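Re: export button greyed out
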Amino acid sequence: MSLEVIVLAAGQGKRMHSALPKVLHRLAGQPLLAHVLAAARALAPRRIVVVHGHLGGELRSAFADLRVEWVEQAEQLGTGHAVMQALPHVAADAEVLVLYGDVPLVRADTLRRLADAARGGLAILTADAPDAAGYGRIVRSAGGRVERIVEHKDASDEQLAIREVNAGFLAAKASRLGAWLAKVKNRNAQREYYLTDVVAHAVSEGVVVSAVKAADWHEVTGVNTHHDLAILERAFQNAGAKRLLEAGVALADLRRIDVRGDLECGRNVSIDVNCVFEGRVRLGDGVKIGPNCVLRDVAVAAGSEIHAFSLLENAEVGARCRIGPYARLRPGASLAEEVHIGNFVEVKASRFGAGSKANHLAYIGDAEVGARVNIGAGTITCNYDGARKHRTVIEDDCFIGSDTTLVAPVRLAKGSYIGAGSTISKDTPAGELTVARARQITVPRWKPPKKD
Ligand code: UD1
Ligand code: CA
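Workaround output, generated via the alternate export path:
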């Protein structure tokens, strides 16, 4: 069987009240359409055709690196009309799977069941809805056979009571689907060519329509409003949280974690409330993440602790480090083992050797920090002269007194000892004390000024 997929994504999504095309709104950090395409790709179809509307350029550039074909539906005359625009791009003998770009949580194995159920006829995906409002209802005969789908806006009171709804996905041979679509008229409440009307046409030809039921209601929930999107986001996050808990990760609260990407955890990892993980995050054995942390594309090695309110981005944290609270690791921060980065310390494009510490209120940018270095409170690297960035090198075992200004480019040789309040603009010698500040004097016999 050669499978080809059509994804409908031309609707404007008026109910989102947004200039962004609906399928570009994000769920778990990814556009809705990306979720649908990922499920489709898992079936290894011969081709994926996406039907877009007038904002096609935006869609194409958002998915520029994917191998999909794009077809424009200039006017949104309905889902049936949209499929008709795509069919000329599909092989007549192909088995076609039609998906909606705004139903993001459908699973690949459900799609596989749907494709298998068509068997030369027609298969539709249905679900029992806790709230069926807005969905097409599945009308069955007394004997239980699927007869047709009636849209919410066209349904009688009796039909509105039906809880089995149309997910919107179907599978059929391309040539047959085309023939049924040719019969579809737009005589309905919305003056649209409904894809769902192909069911009645297939039935009138004596085709048995098989209804595949989705296991989980969220799999077939469509996003029409931000409310729908928020509900699905939570459903997605809760399912992910359950998987983490089952794998042995100690979450303080399964409802207060957001993973927008891949989170890989070792053994005995614990994560406190309100943490956000984005991109690819790896946490080694025994890592502890405090509350309200954000980690984006970060690797944290075994035994390290990230304390509350820390933000780590594109950074590497070695084993047994202590980060935060209120620490910021910016791109290119790379820490060896047992490094301490404390409160209100910002590190950018800098490496720290083993056992080095910057415990309070510091900015270290474009620097090479050796092992066992102690950086006092208030120390900053002046790495930018307004035009270019310069490097600061702090060799092993340096001790930098509080409130030191390091004017780059500058090198502090091994074991340099810098007096507090220094402005260091020249290289310092190994093992010596360097002080670069005005000397303290006391003015003898000084008298305070008198008021007139
Ligand atoms: C549709 C189904 C309904 C089903 C529901 C599931 C029809 C007529 N109705 O209703 O039975 O229960 O989905 O979510 O199919 N689109 C186009 N071109 C168009 C119109 C729509 O590409 O001219 C796309 C939209 O971008 C969207 C999808 O088709 O991705 C569904 O369209 P939408 O208007 O949201 O249909 P519903 O009213 O939700
Ligand atoms: Ca919809």
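The mean pLDDT is 96. The button fix ships in the next patch.
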